[in-house]
Every structure is written in C-alpha cells, then in structure tokens.
Automatic annotation (TrEMBL):
It catalyses: a 2'-deoxyribonucleoside 5'-diphosphate + ATP = a 2'-deoxyribonucleoside 5'-triphosphate + ADP; a ribonucleoside 5'-diphosphate + ATP = a ribonucleoside 5'-triphosphate + ADP. The keyword Phosphoprotein applies. GO terms for molecular function: ATP binding; metal ion binding; nucleoside diphosphate kinase activity. It comes from the Bacteria. Its EC number is 2.7.4.6. The keyword Cytoplasm applies. NCBIfam families: PRK00668.1 (NF001908). Belongs to the NDK family. One of its GO terms (biological process) is CTP biosynthetic process. Residues 1-138 form the Nucleoside diphosphate kinase-like domain. This is Nucleoside diphosphate kinase. Its main location: cytoplasm.
Amino acid sequence: MERTLVLVKPDGIQRGLVGEIMTRFERKGLKLLALKMTQLSDELLDKWYEHHKDKDFFVELKNFMKWTPVVAMVWEGQRGVEVVRRIVGVTKGFEAESGSIRGDFGLSGSQNIVHASDSVEAATKEIGLLFEDDEIFYTYESAIECLIYGNQERAKKED
Ligand code: CMP
C-alpha cells in the first residue's frame, strides 16, 4: 500500500470544499491515516516548493498558500499516489477532466483547490514535513478493507 499527502489549499477552504474533497477519497476506498488543520510557514513553504523557487510565480504561490490555514491529510491505498492524483485531476482547472476535483470545481492554473503528492518519494518528504510520526495512525483496523480489496491484495500490502 502507498501513502500520499493531500492538502486542501486556501481556496478550497474558503469555498467550503473540505467535506466534498474528503468524500471523494473515502468513497474510492482509501484509508485516512492522518488529518489536521495547520498554518503553513515561509520556512516550510520554501522546502515544500523548493523545485519552484526560481519560477516567477514563487512569491505569489507562497502568499496564496499562507492566506488561510490548510487541511492536511495522509491517505493510504493500493497505488495510492497515482489513484489520488487521478481523483484530483491535472494541475490547471481549465484542463482537468470533469469528474476530477479540479475538473469539477476549478478554472484556474494557480488556485487549484488541492495538492496531492506526485510520487512516492515526494509523499514521504511531504508527510515528514507536516506530520510527526505519532500523528499518523498507521495500523488501525479498517472494517471495509475486505470489501475494497481481494485476499491476495490484502496479503501483499506493500503493492
Ligand atoms: P501544485 O501542482 O499542487 O503545486 C505547484 C503549484 O504551483 C500548483 O499546484 C499551482 O498552485 C501553482 N502554480 C503552478 N503554475 C502556476 C503559475 N503559472 N502561476 C501561479 N501559480 C502556479
């Protein structure tokens, strides 16, 4: 199973989309391991968006991400990173497919409602930046796991 980090960005908070976004991951069968509301700092955003630091939108992006607190979540599932990225949709709302979060709720290339880790490596880094280990509930029993996965998939949890 893979873990991935999702943020509801300030525009998602302002538009009241937290419940809608969480519902989409829940109904897919993903398991929620961690959840909190938090205010992102300059220091954290410098690390988070390290790869964008030379872009002309870097300052605007950081200011946008500090506008309100964000809701941060860790979700787990088979191929969790790519599954969550498909539910979220491509970066720009005006290109995202209908049915995805950005496709259904977004029109902007910058104010795109939600962030989702783009690789297993990025997820590990982002989870580490936002959560202490004791804030993540790795092992609680999911009562619906037997409905979501086949026996072989459950036995082979690392996939
Ligand atoms: P995300 O893909 O989650 O992470 C990088 C973010 O940078 C992206 O979402 C957008 O919010 C933002 N972004 C990307 N391109 C632009 C742009 N041209 N102008 C402003 N913000 C952008």
